[in-house]
Fold:
Amino acid sequence: MGDCITTFSKIHMTPSAPKPEDLRIEDIAHALSLMVRANGHFPRFYSVGQHCIHCCGEAHARGYTKRVQLACLLHDASEAYLADITRPVKQHLPRYRKIEAGLQAAVFEKYLGVLTAEEERLWRELDDLLLYYEFKHFMGEELMDCPGALKSSPVFDTEPFSATEQTYLDWFRRLREG
Structure:
């Protein structure tokens, strides 16, 4: 196997050298629905998939383009193949960050082409916005100055993995078809 992982759909792929044909939205949706946010330190299960769905929903509520909404949905897709490592740790892992950036770029390129600087700025802004509200909700902690008000109404609660996976896929298909 070497540098390969086996995905949910039984693809053998190399995260450090991803090929477009090895990246599957079904694998991404499945893995992110099962991946815990905040390294498991929230008082109950809340997935990376739910976080991505909420980012996408916020972009939708703000009337952002379908490309930005899809970028929000996909912004943590690399974690489906690597893992969700907390920001304070990730900053000390330059090789990991390089692999993650390459893998995330491959996902964006496959499903969106190259993002503009503005599209990247918008998804990053909403990622931080949701991070702020997730920590405020689950931990009663404000990680940063409030980055703004939510326009959507995310539900920060545990939901069945299969429901998160299906919602992720539904958003993906709606945004890709439109």
